[in-house]
Design goal:
400 residues, alpha+beta, four-stranded mixed β-sheet, globular, binds zinc ion
Amino acid sequence: MKTFHCNHCSHLVFYENVRCERCESLLGYVPEVAEISAFEDAGEGRWRSLHPDLPDALFRQCHNYAVENVCNWMIPADSPDTLCRACQLTRTIPNLSAPDNRLYWYRLEMAKRRLLYTLAALGLDVKSRQMDPEHGLAFEFLEDGGDGEQVMTGHDNGLITLNIAEADDAYREKVRTAMGEPYRTLLGHFRHETGHYYFSQLVQDNPRWLEPFRKLFGDESVDYGEALTTYYRDGAPADWQASHISAYATMHPWEDWAETWAHYMLIVDVLDTSTSYGVALLPDDPSEPTLTDRTPVEDASFENLMKRWFPLTYALNSLNRSLGMADGYPFTLAAPVVDKLRFVHRVIAEAGDKSRPREAAAVAGAPAPAAAPAAPPPLPLSQPAGAAAAPAPTTQPAKS
Ligand SMILES: [Zn+2]
Ligand SMILES: [Zn+2]
Ligand SMILES: [Zn+2]
């Protein structure tokens, strides 16, 4: 992700910020230009942008920003919407009468917005269910029921379900350890599940990609339920690292794709961030790789991305060790995994429309017509027993 600055005082600000730490200006993200803007109060709930790309433009805060404090996106003042484009994608929010659920909701929305930023940077379409009831994307943030009903994190035909317990660090770490995973994050869940969604949008019915996909990932028509049972009974093959990005990716070609897709998103986001900060590597030892290339990730060839990625990960993990923390990047990329990542890159490069600014790409399909009634904010729904996503081919327990 690129860096942002307060338009009032030039202080460095972050994608998640709502106030400038230095001058206390209100900050908000404007997806139309993919920028954080500082604002001044224009009265009646309207805010005037101080961003040079948005001279005097008036905005309102998303309802989930102004009232719920879980969002920081802005809406054009004359829009009929009450929710921003990101919040419109969430169909069910956690039951806010439970004490920790608002924090979990905040963390879920934050991870979702970061995902949306990367998708838009790559020029990928994100259509909501309202725009496209058949192929649109929607999120449900559900909680395990009191009767032991378990919410499965997963994807079913554009509907992505997240178990909100994944936003509880202690829970997620416990599951990560129990499953023997080196890496488990909320953002990773969002990336993985949207991988399933984009498989259905870009690969599944596309003759150009389906055969090359099968050559690399295997035959996705093999029975998913059987593959799942086998995986949880026998685990991954001992030598899975020679061909897969994670043990879980060995379960079924769909999961291999979703894991690889998620990994590609991770690489692009981290490289985008380091490039924006001007991070360069100029090691004393001339045999070590340097990193000075600053090609924007959305314009970079796959070879360019890989060439920059490896030296960055060595530095990243060394920095983490100096912090006394586990490696931030606990992965190795075997040649077949690189080939799969290259395939994901090609699919995205062909599908992505780079003619639109980063976040604007996230709303292909045009804004709601002026006459459309304002969308009501989602009600804090409690989940009745059995509200979890119905068992579907791409839904699986525990690990998303
Ligand atoms: Zn400021
Ligand atoms: Zn919002
Ligand atoms: Zn999956």
